[in-house]
Structures are given as C-alpha cells and as structure tokens.
Amino acid sequence: MNKKEINEIKRTFSDDCGLFTVNHVVTAFVDAEKNIKCKTNQLYNTIPQDEAELIMINLKKVLSGSIGKNLLEYSFPKDAYLEGGAQPFMYETLQSKLLDEEKVDNFLNAIVGKVEYVSTYTIFMAHCTYSVLKKNKMDEFEDEADTDYNFIVTALCPVNLRIDGLVYDEQDNSIAKKESCDRIVELPSDGFLFPLFNDRAPDINGVLYYTKNAKKPNTSVVEELLGCEFSMTCQNEKETFKDILTSVVGDELDYDLITAVNDKISTFVDQNAHETETPTIDEHKLSSILWEAGVSQDKLEKLHGVYENAMHGKVFRAVNLVEDKVTISGMGFKMTVDNYHKGDVSTAIGKVIFGVADTAVDVNGIGIKMDGVANG
C-alpha cells in the first residue's frame, strides 16, 4: 500500500462517512498469564456511543505513522499459503465477517499464543466495509461504487495499572488516599490490517503491520502470527547504511563527506515527497549519491560486493537514512547542531579538541578524520 491508498482508507475511517461501515467488533482482555479474561462480539451500532468512539480511535491508530517506519507492508511467503498457514487462516477469518464464534476464538487464541507481550493488553478487532468509488481519467471520484473492500483491522493495546494515590475527596472536603485503582487501556502498540488495499482493490497476498515503536517493533506479530519474514527496522537500516559507508569510503570519510551524503539523501526524499510510492535507494542510486558527494571512483568499485553482503538484494527506504541533526562526539565531549548550522561545526570541533592528534571523533556514529583528528 502506498501513501495515497493508506490516506484514502484513513479519510473514510469514520462514522460520518457514508461509504464506510464498521460491522462487527470483537474485544478481549488478556492477563499477564496469557488468559483471555473476557470477550465481547457485537454489532458496532449497538455499542454505546462513548465506547464506540474510543474503539474507533484505537482501530484508526493502526493506520497512522510513517510508511517504512510505523507502517510496514509484508507479502506472505510461499509456505504461508500451505494448509494451516497464516494466509488461509487470515482469509477464513475475513470471510467469516467475525460472525462465526469458533473462528473468532481461534483467531484470538492465535494472537494470545503467538504474540509475545510484556504486560496485560486488550485486543480490538473489527470487520469493516469500504465501498470504493470509481475514478475517472482525471482521477476524480464518480458516483458509482466500483467494488467493496472488506477488511479486518486489529489493534493490540497495552493495559496499565494506574493508582492515583492521594486525591481530593469532595464528600469529606479533604485530601485522602484513593483505595481503588484503575486499569487504563492505552493506544495500540501494535496492529495489522488484512487484506491490503492495493490499486484501490483488495489484495489478499499481504498484510499491513503497524508498530508504535519503529525502533523496537514486536517481531512476534510479524513472524509468528502473520507468518511473514521480518524486514529491517528503520534503526537497522540506518546502522547497516553506516557500515556500508564506512566499508566503502574508508579513509576518505570526513565531516564534509558525511554531511554531503546526508544532504543528497535528504534532497532525494524531498523531491519525492509528493509521490505515492515510498522512495527507496538501491545499489545504483547509492552509487550515484556517493559519487555526487565526492567519493572517488576507486572507492566506489567496492560498493557492489559490500552492498550485496549487507543487503542481499534488498533496498533502503530513503527516509530512514536521513539525519535531521548532526551529532559529534569524542574526547569526552558531545555536541548536537541542526542542519542549518552544520557548516560551523568543523571550526567548533577544532576549538574543543585543540588539534590533538589520534583523537577519535564520530559524526552521527561514524568515525571520521579531520585536521588534527585521526580516523575513529
């Protein structure tokens, strides 16, 4: 799913949209011992409005965040289509429209049994229908619906214990200790949408995974429950990119080169900001960026082997490589500046380290060489 398709679903994900319907909603509370303590399965329009609004907020949150960071699309591998695999399991649940209690229980039990969670949590799951209007050649919506996009969206929300301690007691007009405690359902930490909405039509060959923490996603959701091969996180991509840069450029690495490479990638992201597809950087594009940043041809000859060993045919999501600030550390100091003032950094570093030789200095975690500073 690209940005345009995700935004289309997000815009329609509302009680006020005449093209969108939440049909059945399943909720379940799971304790720390992986026991389902309670479960409901009901028509959405029978749920009290205040509760329905909160459920809607949690479900819609699964479609939020940045593509490539919080939202990751996964295609089912071949073995996921085998009998008992994740794809037919997901598809059967979708086809049931959450009306078959046995299939609902099987789905909930699969989540509880396969997903690793560190605390108690609540599961929200809904079967929804979006009537997809046709578009004309001018990319404008027509009045006639083209197809129905039926999907299941699931949110996994941590439940935390809140003890307020001392509170104001209006009845006694005093400050007293609150004896009771509350279990608060927070916004989802993980979730997924099935099937995908590709080319404005259902695509049962993949699933969209949501994570609140892009640096530490819950891999058990992707690998164990959804049966997909987990790809690199944004932090993994950034670290892999740094390793490639260090291995290829070697002794040519310096402050100016690192910031130049970052500028080139940032420009590439900005140039593609209005594109529906997420901009990616493959080996060819990376070679072009490094060449334009000033890396010599001799160094670039090593890129093919280094890139293949690190990426195994995969590509970088460009937005995950951009550094918004410049952080320099070494000799017991650390300084961070925004990109607008990065041109003054070389002088600032020189004043701090006083030209001491053999000093390890890192720029955004990459060892560099500068005048009077040895390669870190």
Question: Keyphrases for this structure?
Answer:
4-stranded antiparallel sheet; 8-stranded antiparallel sheet; single chain; 11 helices; alpha+beta; 376 residues; 18 strands
Task: Give a structural overview.
This protein has 376 residues and is of the alpha+beta class. It is 32% helix and 30% strand. It contains eleven helices and 18 strands. The chain has helices at residues 3-12, 49-61, 86-96, 101-114, 219-225, 234-249, 255-271, 283-293, 297-300, 303-311, 345-353, and strands at 20-30, 36-43, 71-75, 121-135, 141-162, 166-169, 174-177, 182-185, 190-194, 196-198, 201-203, 206-211, 280-281, 316-317, 325-330, 333-338, 361-363, 366-368. The strands form five sheets. Strands 1, 2, 3, 4, 5, 8, 9 and 12 form an eight-stranded antiparallel beta sheet that branches. Strand 17 (361-363) and strand 18 form a beta hairpin. Helix 6 packs antiparallel against helix 10 and helix 7 (255-271) crosses helix 8 (283-293). The longest helix has 17 residues, at 255-271. The two termini are 41 Å apart. The model is unreliable at 351-357 and 371-376 (pLDDT under 50).
Give the tally of β-strands: 18
SS-derived structural category: alpha+beta
- What is the number of helical segments per DSSP (H or I, 4+ residues)? 11
Shape: globular
Strand content: 25-35%
| Helix-strand topology string | HEEHEHHEEEEEEEEEHHHEHHHEEEHEE
Mean pLDDT: 85
